[in-house]
């Protein structure tokens, strides 16, 4: 089983990834602002369904990967650190677009809303890199079944993502109006997120391989 302190570190990492703007957040915000909360919630259920695909694919893959290809751990670690630095740059770079600026979207029926949410998350590069590069750093054969650890951590990440994105969907219009009238706070959030992501990237790059 995953030790408590490792689980808490994972919660922090998963929360940071969830908070950083990406395709899921952009789509859910835009859908909620253009078509209302109900459309946003239906889209969110599609996003969550795709998370189960990521979770089980990662759990099955890591169980074989850690045994067969030890070098893959190092490659994934450096790839994850590089991606975190990329996210930090996206948050800090001048002229970055706020996710609260909605894109124009057509009115879609519930089935299409669910499907588009599913596809958006299934093909989301941020989530794919998280599960392939960052996620494995919190799994160790020394703590028991890699499959069980992966499921526990995956469900933890899913719960964090669902809770945060549901709050975003339900308060999208209010948040968008608030940031329009308080642009300074949006800048503060972006800089804070950028520096925290950069610090997490440094920690990931410096971490040594865990004993198997």
Notes on the structure:
The chain has 212 residues and is mainly alpha-helical. It has helices at 4-19, 23-35, 37-68, 70-92, 110-122, 125-134, 146-170, 172-181, 183-206. The chain is built from 9 helices and no strands. It is globular. The mean pLDDT is 78.
What profile does the largest beta sheet have?
none
- Basic shape: globular
Mean pLDDT: 78
Runs in which pLDDT lies below 50 for 5 or more consecutive residues are none
Q: Gap between N and C termini, in Å?
A: 14 Å
Q: Roughly what percent helix?
A: over 70%
> Care to count the β-strands?
0
Give a short summary of the structure.
The protein is mostly helical and 212 residues long. It has nine helices and no strands. It has helices at 4-19, 23-35, 37-68, 70-92, 110-122, 125-134, 146-170, 172-181, 183-206.
Topology of this protein?
Layout lengths: L3 H16 L3 H13 L1 H32 L1 H23 L17 H13 L2 H10 L11 H25 L1 H10 L1 H24 L6
Helix pairs in contact: 1-7, 1-9, 2-3, 2-7, 3-5, 3-7, 4-6, 4-9, 8-9
For this entry, give a set of tags:
212 residues, mainly alpha, 9 helices, 0% strand
């Amino acid at each position: 089983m995953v030790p408590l302190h490792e689980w808490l570190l994972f919660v922090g990492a998963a929360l940071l990834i969830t908070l950083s703007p990406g395709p899921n957040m952009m789509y859910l915000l835009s859908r909620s602002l253009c078509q209302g909360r109900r459309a946003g919630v239906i889209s969110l259920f599609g996003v969550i369904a795709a998370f189960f695909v990521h979770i089980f694919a990662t759990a099955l893959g890591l169980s074989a990967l850690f045994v067969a290809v030890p070098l893959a751990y190092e490659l994934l670690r450096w790839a994850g650190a590089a991606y975190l630095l990329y996210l930090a740059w996206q948050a800090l770079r001048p002229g970055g677009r706020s996710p609260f600026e909605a894109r124009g979207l057509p009115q879609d029926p519930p089935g299409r809303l669910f499907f588009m949410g599913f596809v958006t998350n299934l093909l989301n590069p941020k989530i794919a890199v998280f599960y392939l590069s960052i996620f494995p750093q919190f799994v160790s054969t020394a703590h028991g079944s890699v499959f069980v650890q992966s499921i526990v951590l995956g469900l933890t990440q899913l719960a964090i993502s669902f809770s945060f994105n549901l709050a975003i969907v339900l308060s999208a219009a209010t948040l968008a109006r608030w940031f329009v009238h308080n642009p300074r706070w949006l800048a503060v959030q972006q800089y804070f997120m950028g520096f925290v992501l950069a610090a997490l990237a440094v920690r990931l790059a410096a971490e040594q391989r865990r004993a198997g």
